[in-house]
Design goal:
Blueprint: E1 13-17, E2 23-28, H1 38-48
Length: 49
């Protein structure tokens, strides 16, 4: 889809950053065992790009 994905594990936060460096989506949960649903991440990626 034309984006870079960077992971740091365990990862309680997810950010989608556009090519201009602006945060387009952010998810944070202090409990790293609760992951962001992949469908939500995919939908947010489509909207951000």
């Amino acid at each position: 889809m034309g984006y870079d994905l960077y992971l740091l594990l365990p990862a309680p936060s997810v950010f989608i950053i556009d090519v201009e460096g602006m945060i387009q989506f952010q998810y944070t949960n202090p409990n790293y065992r609760i992951r962001l649903d992949h469908e939500v991440l995919l939908a947010a990626t489509r909207v951000a790009l």
